[in-house]
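Tutorial, part two.
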Amino acid sequence: MSRAFVNEDNDQPEELPEIPQSPNPGYITAAGLAGLKAELARLETVDRPPLETAIAGGGGEAGQAETELARIRQRVKYLEARIARAIVTDPAAAAPDHVHFGAIVTVRDQSGHQMRVHIVGEDETDPEHNTVSCFSPLARALMTKQVGDIALWRRPIGDLELTVLAIEPGI
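Running the prediction step on this input gives:
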């Protein structure tokens, strides 16, 4: 049995510490909430059962399965908490002429470089796909701006002025 997550006094697997929750409100799009629920269902119905079978069977794979099962339980607790505190926000309900939660915004910096970002909840952020948290410095700089407005994005490497070129409704 792996000793990484075992209580030495009774040989029972220990629970991993909870993943910290954000102190921010749990704003999320309907699509983002569906994604969290889908991940939770996959963990519980696809990923967990084979690990439980491996543990019950004992043998050399049981220790690794226990470690992986502890990680899954940790993630399940996190997802359950995030889902419980989700505040589904409909981007279509916001004024379309202002940057808002769920909007897809196209901006241009002073050097002419354009960037398109989708402002979403913390659980939906994915920098590789240009989705940013509504609590990020970029989103906060853009919120409530209109096409033609200039936003000041305060960054650790220096402030950057961005001109809002387009605002599209998000999903």
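Residues 26-88 form a domain with the Helix Hairpins fold (CATH 1.10.287.180). In part three we will examine how such features are distributed along the chain.
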